[in-house]
Design brief:
By secondary structure, this protein is of the alpha+beta class. The protein has 15 helices and 14 strands.
Length: about 450
């Protein structure tokens, strides 16, 4: 070994981020293993090796029973021990590199990184991140997103695992923290903790809601995240392939926060039931579809963001619920208007709510006697069965009406007439009857 070999070790240490001293120590141990194999020695203390850190000169020795050292000529070891030394050295170098990767990327867990798409393996995207190849499982990919080899991939280091022979770096673009890190990268106030992301809910590839607040009253958290003419938020949306992002103002009041979370819908009133962990939201008829969102997405994300179950009603539905309660409990002996008001204040706005909270809440919070509370719960339970049946029938009628409207629309768009449809229907019925009765050809 000479200075040139030391230079190679230096290069390996630098390129693979491994301690140079550790590599030299591994090489010394490899030489000891080779010597033990050559002399068929089982005693691990028989041999020793030292490499000069300046010149690269190798000194290999053997100690006898009296502790007297005698140098071993490296050339006398032959080819087989040299191969042993090489194998041990390669194995130890790989272990060192694995430990180095585990330590380095373990510290970078949760960091935003940029890599290069390599290929897909069983649905997982393999991404080259500096000197390691990470993988992004299908569950951590944005639905519908596809990368080609060589494409730039910005992602989050989600997890780092020690898989015995290698280090597995799990990457993600679907995790909510990926959004958080993008905001830290694009919005200096978020990175500096002047603006705090208090809560977040996300359906990757479709929509994300963030609740933000500012520790500085002079800084508008929503405006700062959006940027001048939407410049900051546009960069993030572009990175996400067009995923919609709603930024709402955080508020310690759950009522205000829920109303903010349902934006862009306008909320008329919010009624909270702490016993059920549910917020009942009243919105105008023209705001109902906006509040619910496509396939319930807006209300679903708002519920996750706030931590409350969210139920959306129109004023008419809200009034019907209250009326059903009043009609059910007012005839009961001992029930008072004050009790009805307290039930409303607790957010119990339907007979189903009263049945669900049960006797203990009515006695403890409303002040009813146990006998009256049992009567109220029973009456609401019976009324609930009637209401549920009415709702089922109404839902079926609504489904039929929508189907009829859709059929009428298809006729108009298809250029047919009601008479044509009637003729086709009659012909189809006749054909079916012939088939059943055996009169078909």
């Amino acid at each position: 070994m000479n200075r040139e070999t030391l230079a190679i070790l230096d290069s390996i240490a630098r390129d693979r981020n491994i301690d140079r001293e550790l590599l030299i120590h591994d090489l010394e141990q490899a030489m000891v293993s080779a010597a033990r194999k050559h002399f068929n020695s089982l005693d691990t203390e028989d041999f020793g090796c030292e490499i000069d850190r300046a010149t690269g000169a190798i000194t290999l020795w053997r100690e006898d029973e009296d502790g007297i050292r005698s140098d071993v000529d490296l050339k006398s070891l032959g080819r087989i021990p040299a191969q042993t030394a090489k194998q041990v050295m390669i194995q130890r170098f790989r272990e060192d590199e694995r430990n180095s990767l585990l330590e380095e990327f373990g510290k970078r867990q949760g960091e935003l990184v940029t890599g290069t798409a390599a290929r897909y393996e069983g649905g997982a995207l393999m991404v080259q991140i500096e000197r390691i190849e990470g993988f992004m499982p299908r569950s951590e990919q944005i639905p519908g997103e596809q990368f080609q080899p060589g494409d730039r991939v910005r992602c989050l280091i989600l997890d780092v695992r020690d898989a015995t022979s290698q280090v597995k770096v799990v990457l993600s673009r679907a995790h909510p923290d990926f959004i958080r890190k993008l905001f830290e990268a694009e919005v200096p106030e978020v990175a500096e903790r002047v603006i705090e992301i208090k809560a977040m809910s996300r359906e990757p590839g479709f929509r994300t809601k963030l609740a933000v607040s500012s520790v500085d009253s002079k800084v508008d958290p929503v405006g700062a995240c959006v940027g001048v003419r939407g410049s900051r938020i546009r960069n993030i949306v572009d990175e996400l392939g067009g995923e919609k992002i709603d930024i709402v103002r955080w508020n310690e009041s759950s009522q205000v926060l829920i109303a903010n979370a349902l934006k862009p819908a306008e909320v008329e009133e919010v009624s909270l039931c702490f016993e059920l962990g549910r917020g009942t939201i009243i919105v105008r008829e023209d705001q109902l579809s906006l509040a619910i969102g496509r396939r319930g997405q807006n209300v679903r994300l708002a519920a996750r963001l706030t931590g409350w179950d969210v139920d959306i009603l129109t004023p008419a539905e809200f009034e019907r619920n209250l009326q059903a309660i009043e009609e059910t409990v007012r005839p009961l002996e001992g029930f008072t208007d004050a009790m009805l008001d307290k039930m409303g204040a607790l957010g119990l706005i339907s007979v189903f709510d009263i049945e669900e909270v049960g006797v203990p809440v009515l006695t403890a919070e409303i002040g009813m006697s146990e006998e009256l509370a049992e009567q109220v719960v029973y009456a609401c339970s019976e009324k609930g069965k009637i209401v549920a049946e009415e709702q089922r029938i109404a839902a079926e009628e609504d489904a039929v009406r929508k189907a009829e409207d859709m059929q009428a629309t298809d006729l108009l768009l298809g250029g047919g007439t009601a008479r044509d449809t009637a003729v086709q229907t009659d012909a189809g019925a006749e054909s079916a009857a012939d088939s059943i009765l055996g009169g078909g050809n």
